[in-house]
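Hi support team,

I submitted a single chain yesterday and got back a structure, but I'm not sure I'm reading the token output correctly. Could someone confirm the output below corresponds to the sequence I sent? I've pasted both exactly as they appear in my results page.

Thanks,
R.
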Amino acid sequence: MNEPTIVPTPVPLTPAASTPPASITVSERKQARRENWKLIARRPGFVIGSVILFVWIVCAIGGDRITPNDPLHAGLVANNLKPGTTYNGVKLWLGSDTSGRDILSRIMAGARDVLSVAPPAAVLGVLGGTVFGLLMGYYRGILDQILSRIIEALLSLPTLLIGLLAVTVFGKSNTVVIIVVAVLFTPIVARTVRAAVLAESDLDYVTSARLRGESSGFIMFREILPNVSGPIIVELTVRIGYAVFTVATLSFLGAGPPPPSPDWGAQVSESYHIMSAGIWWPTIFPAIAIASLVIAVNLIADAVQSVFEA
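Hi R., thanks for writing in. Yes, this is the structure output for that exact sequence:
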């Protein structure tokens, strides 16, 4: 006698078993990012750089509301008074400049001119470079070749010369400087992002997204972009430091805000010629301010880079 054939009853998938692997990947990715930022926050360089940067941000926001004296008041005191001098009841911790203005007040107020231009320029440059890098690394082919040649041409141009030329043609304004610096930074960032996207675009999760029928935009910005965010963040922090130096240099060369602006580069430009006469403080202190901001940003960038590239 034949035994009856037993057909197994299908067992429904539990919610845990039906969870797509992508959601687990996203969760692990978020957890990894949180752990990375915790590691960054523990780095001494990040802490020191953040403190210095915070001081300059406070000065930029406060402006002449928190300065000891009016930073634009020419003739407030005698010209070229040494640091620590008290003149008619006015304490000059960093001395006065060639127009009798308080150098400390001008340095504090000048932080606004730098921080209102350099970070926006760096952000725009990184955004533009990220978009172009994604397009080049994902589509490759003729698009990659055309954009690569354009980027090589832009990278061959001297940064300061292009900046001075643009300011001469379009006029001296913060908007012009922001756009020029952003355009000059875009090809550099694009090349970095392209290399990162090329390394990711052949991995299994990208292939799976293509097989699911996801659009190219979805794959680039929702799948690949989060996985190349590390190099992009590193580029952003590095570019801010370069932007500070570039903006200050353009101001020194006369492409920044006109006098009597307390811009740091302009202060150095106004007074460097009198250093040979022993009057060093109107030049050295603004230069130290520029250096401290660049160093602070670089310390933060080094901490971020050491964690994301570990």
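A quick pointer for reading it: The first helix runs from residue 15 to 18. Let us know if anything else looks off.

Best,
Support desk
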